Amino acid sequence: MSILNPGDKVRLKANPARVGILGNETDGPAHRQRVLVSFLDGSEDFVLPSTLEKVENKPLRPYECIERGRFSGEDDLRAAITFHRLSGKLANLIYSLNTTNTQFLAYQFKPVLQFLDSPCNGILIADEVGLGKTIEAGLIWTELRARLDAKRLLVVCPAMLREKWRDELANRFGVLAEMVDAGDLLKKLQAVRERPQDGFAVIASMQGLRPPRGFNSPDQVSQRSAAKLARFLEDAEVDEPLLDMVVVDEAHYLRNKGTQTNLLGRLLRPVASSLVMLSATPIQLRSSDLFNLLNLIDEDAFPYEESFRYSLEANAPIVRLRDRILAGPITRTDFVEGLDEALEARFFEDNEQITYLRGHAPSNKRLADPKGRAELADQLDRINPLSKVVTRTLKRDVHEGRVVRAPYAIRATMSGSESDFYEQVTEAIRGYCVARAVSTGFMLTIPQRQMSSCMAAACRAWQKKHAALEQDELEETLYDLQGDLLEEKAPQPDEMGSLLSALVDIAREVGDYETLRHNDSKYAELLKNLRIYWADNPGKKVVLFAFYRQTLAYLAERLREDGYASVLVQGGMDKQQALARFQEPQGPSILLSSEVASEGVDLQFSSLVINYDLPWNPMRIEQRIGRIDRIGQEAERIMIWNFMYADTIDERVYDRLLDRLNIFTCALGSMEGILGEQIRELTQDLLTHKLTPEEETQRINQASLAIENTNRQQEELEAQATQLIAHSDFIQNKVRAAKELGRYIRGEDLLSYARDFLIVHYPGSRFVPSDRDPMEYDLELSVQARVEFAEFVDLYRLQGRSQLLSQRPKPLLFENRQGNPSSAFERVTQDHPLIRFVTDRLRQAGKSPAKFPVSAIDLAAFEVQGFEPGIYVFGIYRWTVSGTRDIERLEYVVRPFQNDCFVDGELAEHLVNTAALCGSQWLSVANELDTEAAAAYFDACRDQLDERFDEFQSAQGREDRDRLKMMKKALQSHLDKQVERLITTIQSHRSSGEERRMRMIPAAEGKLKKLRNRFQERIAELELKSGGSSDKNFVTGGVIRLL
Fold this sequence. Notes:
By secondary structure, the protein is α/β, with parallel strands linked by helices. Helices cover 50% and strands 15% of the residues.
């Protein structure tokens, strides 16, 4: 036994994790003197020298520690696991799980896992309306922030959705995003070239960023911000990506190749590392729309229209085999036949993974074992990563007991004054258009829809010269009528201006606001029905939609006069504040919302929605109903009141089209891409031509039949596509398993991680608990810690992400859940600067924060399912395989004491993670355990992990080589296209003979050279990575006693 001297570094034999410095002071009688130890956690104690041992500098060997009965406790176990998890690279951890301010819904992580597997760094999320595509995109961003330290996010969406995105990102993901125009975005991107460490999250409208036609014409250089941005993006395409992720919402706006909106997508793609596109449009494999979107995500992986379908159809035998394996035992012969069917496709002719599985087919015993089948299913699922580039979830797939929708038509019979006003305005506008030879289509749509919404409100607005619609209302109205043609045929401002002037004159001539107000048949029906509803359902909240602001203002006024307070929500106002007021039990009972403000609002606490005016486009209807028919709606039945004037086009469209097609009872909203065109043609025909009521009915019937046929065909095509993209149950089960296994990082983990490190390495740092929350602390950093933390924040440009260095820092709440900043505390999540600082320092030191390599833990048996009480020996290793993708994972192995069988991988992980979280140190382990036998079992665990690692390494190598072939093929294709385009440009300049264009040739040639160099570098990088390297490192081990 070595002699201890003051100043020696010592530790308790019974708890080796407690390390301290031996002092001079002693206490107690002369024959039993205790010595003072100043422990590194800041405490001091007098202890018997016989309970101490000197800390030697030689490395602690886990086998030897177990053999000698030297163990630490649950803190070291948790610290070791947390350190490796916070590296942000573990393939078997979901970093976005339980870390955002969202309800846990397994299906919302399906896009996250598919995105991580996609070789294109891109995904099209085509979920039905109401399933939370915004949340899914936010989860992917959260995952990228944790895994790759992603810093720069751009969201591109229709103008009316910008506020929704800003609010969602802040409230659910703690991302403070700024709304920008083309000029602002250009400045930010230019700054990135100078300062690559800069981070930002910005939201811009498609309309604002869309490049004008001829933006790069050498004849006339446009100075508009959108043109300057487009030229910058075009020039930057061969540089390193400037954006970490671009999200395109309502991506179906980009589906037509010749449009400027599609061009915007093509300009943004090369400057973005990742692209996430969101659309409720259904998947139709033979559709050119789908191809155009996939071609934007990765034009090299999907070079021609049939490429995605071909990839999926080639994959179909693999998917069928995977599903058969998961459904139950199959024979070895069945397995081989399934692979042979897949190998018939040229797509897989040189695929190493299938060839290997074919030559090493599993035994019937493995195919009968649930664990073996799960592993095989996972291998099969990884064979064709291109199939992961589209994900689609239907409502019927994710929640049983769908809410019943009960629609009611409420028909208001026009009063004489209303009927006269409606007819006279319609005739006057038709006459106006004919006299000026202007197309009446879009001209007539606007006033017609305003009158159908509310006659009195429209008259008042026109008479007060408020006829002009807000920009977002105008764009939405015109899009419903003209769709993608809008870019080419948009009404000119002078046309719109003259129409609005004419409306003012017409309304003054034929309208009398007070008379229309007094005889408002529609409002009378609304008031009567609301009174009956509230008498039967006191306190129930009601949501009313109308398209036009003037209608909403009028209704708020009338309801107030009749004794009913309302909350108004429309574009350009603080929605969150208004909705909070509405949600309060004592708040107003009715919400009046515009179409544009309804986007992204969750109102599932209400079970009555009123369509005060009637959109003809099913997508609009579905978006309105979808505000209350969402995940979380508690009512079994929701009501939909549809208001219309009797004996008008609206009534005929409702009866003959919308009601007949069950638009209000079925979620047909996702058919927008297919139905939109037919609805637009119908709208133009009904509003442009002077048809009799009979002719109108006939035309509506025609449209209804055509839509029914389209719908039937679409359902068949959707069924085919869904079958091929069917990863749903498989992936949802993986997500649920991750949650149950604790494959995420908790606030408690972050607190232990930061506290243990700072107290040991920066003496003088203190964590002072607060009275409000057990996870809230005031942190006092030592002088040295403050200096080094400040340097770290400056180096990584993290200013503004923490107030720890301010004069009066807020308390820290260790809660790994993103959300809106609070004035009362500073939330510490996995990407907080303090946590990143600790990880950085530990990484530089090249070691885990655990003070001791093995732990002994006591755990109550009720804490973990599937285990008998007893003693279990465990080991954890970190596996790393580098290649075209770097894969890292923590691998667990557990062996029951005095038993030859190892515990299944996921069960082993569950046991160890639960022990780290809920266990306590087994202090008497040295006296109660046969430590020599335990050490032998531990060594057997290591042997088992070595065997598994060899299999893992070989499988990853095969997958990596298959990916490499795919990526090189795609890169070569990309280079060929780009070179051809640049050579054509150079030849065009040369043949023009113009001096100005000749001067542009050197720049184009420089770009060509840069492109070829970049390609060679990328191929060299891939070649360097191919074959890759692999490594396994011990993380921690020990024993667990289940009591």
